[in-house]
Amino acid sequence: MTATPELATAHTASPDLLRSVFRRHAAGVAVITARGADGPVGFTATSLTSVSADPPMLSFGIGTTASSWPAMSQAEHVGVHILGEHQQELAATFARSGADRFGAPTDWREGPEGVPVLGGVLAWLVCRVAARVPAGDHRVMLAEVVLGDPGGPGRPLLYHQGRFTALRD
């Protein structure tokens, strides 16, 4: 016999309901970067999704009130970095409002198309922004992969129940 959802405890749609449900969804952790008019910008994202294999394309969401949004709204290229379980502090730095995200100890260099590329990550991509789709208080950015490197060592960092965590064997 299979268990059925308890419909009597269902909640009406709200931002809190969505947050509560997605806290139960384990997600990989990425940092998205771009070159801004005043220097590099970036933010931690758990909304990264593969969209298309041909052409290779991905998507991620960004809030329009985020400090990185003004630069992301103008960027022609972005960097996408898949973080390893050893990079919890880096993920927290790029998630923290007002943090010096590119100051020490962040390891980065200017990469192709002027995109900031982070060091020590499991994988990185440089992508051309193809579209910015309005989605409530966010924009879904679609980006076509230009080049990258999937060869970093380690295991992925995850986000679950409001905290960074690692895979368990």
UniProtKB/TrEMBL annotation:
Which keywords has UniProt assigned to this entry?
Oxidoreductase
Q: Where is the signal peptide?
A: none
According to the entry, every stretch annotated as the Flavin reductase like domain falls at: 22-166
One Pfam family hit: Flavin_Reduct
Record's protein name: Flavin reductase family protein
Query: What species is this protein from?
Result: Streptomyces actuosus
